[in-house]
């Protein structure tokens, strides 16, 4: 079943070209089913690229989804046109009276800042508070995951000596009766791209958290709250094949000293085209979240 997105959203043409099942409002209203309402707080600089990354994964499930994109009112992005955000994004004040079945909070390249130093942190806190009573389950990605660990569970991030960038192998833990991991291999690959990390020991010691997957090189990757309402992924399973390549080249153009993304380019040669080893688990993560933590858990009528 499809994702229901605005007819003029630029990502639509790309998704249709890839044979992703989407529809617009006109077609959706002819189907007598209750679609899931998913809101995406997109904090990434290139919002259109991130829209494609996430919609590609949401569109591969047997559910009809109404998608709402959310932007911060306290910060205007520099890498996305104002006309795009005005046409396709809502502010918190515009949606705070509504109920949503699922919320996705993306990453943001601001790990060097303390959370309280982020320009829109107070707004983020209001959104996360609001979600406690108005959203069935939230999927937090990368910086969004670190923000959730800090805000909800008092686990802070810490800086790394150098950027963690590449694709890393992860081992599954605590998989018994965890629907989020259904279909996962005992080890799987996922991309990471960040300058900070969180303590695996602090996660394991927290009474309200369960560590589901971790990497010896990249650290904790996948965590879930005991009530299933918060899922945190510190990496980027939603990334496309060449996203890390684009970030690496961008960093070089900025004059930054960065290593070649680990385990990414064939023969560690940036001139070679990277291969995608994580696509199947990306689809599994999003479909399992939607099915078991949103669709199966959300009420037909919010009260």
UniProtKB/TrEMBL annotation:
Top-level taxon: Bacteria
Entry GO MF terms: homoserine O-acetyltransferase activity; homoserine O-succinyltransferase activity
PANTHER family the record matches: HOMOSERINE O-SUCCINYLTRANSFERASE (PTHR20919:SF0)
Pfam families given in the database record: HTS
NCBIfam families on file: metA
Localization (cell): Cytoplasm
Entry-linked HAMAP family: MetA_acyltransf (MF_00295)
Gene Ontology, cellular component aspect: cytoplasm
UniProt lineage: Bacteria, Bacillati, Bacillota, Bacilli, Bacillales
Function description: Transfers an acetyl group from acetyl-CoA to L-homoserine, forming acetyl-L-homoserine.
GO biological process: L-methionine biosynthetic process from homoserine via O-succinyl-L-homoserine and cystathionine
Site (described: Important for acyl-CoA specificity): 111
EC number(s) per entry: 2.3.1.31
Organism: Salisediminibacterium beveridgei
CDD domains: GATase1_HTS
Enzyme class (EC, first level): transferase
Protein name: Homoserine O-acetyltransferase
Binding site for substrate: 163, 193, 250
